[in-house]
Design a protein that fits this description.
This protein has 198 residues and is α+β, with helices and mostly antiparallel strands.
C-alpha cells in the first residue's frame, strides 16, 4: 500500500515537472524570446520544481562514487599462515566465543562495536557519519588482541539514512545506496578471512 502512495506521489511530481517546464517554454515563446532563451527559461522552470526535492541527489552520487573508488576495499595485512608462523601452536588452543559477545562505544550514528571472537582475535565494526551529502563510512577489522595488530580490514560506504538494508528507510529513497559497487564481493572476502583466523 505504501508503495502505491509513493508511486502516486512520484507520478504527480513528474507531471508537475513536465507541466512547469512546458509552461515556461511556451511563456518564453509568447514573449517572443529567441529559441535559445526559451530553452533557458524552460530549464529555469524545470530547476524550480526539481531542486527543492532533488538538490543533493547528484552531489550524493558523486561523493559516494569518489569515496568508493578512493578508499573502499578489502586488505589483508597478515595472512593466516604468517600469523600461525609468528604464533606457533596458538591456533590449536583458541576456543570460539559462543555468539561472539560484543561491546559498543559511541552512539547509533558513530560507534565502534568490538566482537570477542576468541582469546586472541577480535572483530571491530566502526560506523562514522553522516558526512557531507549523506555519506557514511563503514569499516571492519580483524585484530590480534595481544599485539593490537590489524590483520585484515574491509571499508565500505553507504549513502542515505545511515542504515544498511532494511528499515528504517527514508522517504528520500533515491539517496539510499547500501554499498559500493564491489562492496558485497569485498565483504565476502573479509568474512572468509575472519572465519579462517577466528
Amino acid at each position: 500500500m505504501f508503495g502505491l502512495v509513493v508511486f502516486g506521489a512520484l507520478g504527480i511530481y513528474l507531471v508537475l515537472l513536465i507541466a512547469v517546464t512546458r509552461f515556461s517554454y511556451r511563456w518564453a515563446a509568447k514573449k517572443g524570446l529567441p529559441r535559445g532563451k526559451r530553452w533557458a527559461v524552460a530549464a529555469g522552470g524545470f530547476l524550480l520544481v526539481y531542486l527543492p526535492v532533488f538538490w543533493d541527489h547528484i552531489p550524493t552520487v558523486v561523493a559516494h562514487q569518489y569515496y568508493c573508488h578512493k578508499e573502499a576495499g578489502f586488505w589483508v595485512y597478515k595472512t593466516l599462515d604468517q600469523w600461525k608462523a609468528e604464533n606457533p601452536g596458538v591456533m590449536e588452543t583458541l576456543i570460539a566465543n559462543k555468539d561472539a559477545p560484543s561491546t559498543r562505544q559511541g552512539d547509533m550514528q558513530n560507534y565502534i562495536d568490538t566482537y570477542f571472537l576468541n582469546q586472541r582475535i577480535n572483530k571491530l565494526v566502526k560506523k562514522n557519519g553522516p558526512f557531507l551529502f549523506n555519506r557514511w563510512r563503514w569499516e571492519q577489522e580483524v585484530v590480534d588482541v595481544k599485539t593490537n595488530e590489524v590483520l585484515a580490514r574491509y571499508v565500505d560506504f553507504s549513502t542515505g539514512n545511515g542504515f544498511i538494508g532494511g528499515p528504517p528507510r527514508t522517504l528520500r529513497f533515491w539517496l539510499q545506496s547500501d554499498h559500493c559497487t564491489d562492496g558485497g564481493a569485498s565483504y565476502g572476502k573479509f568474512l572468509l578471512f575472519k572465519r579462517q583466523i577466528s
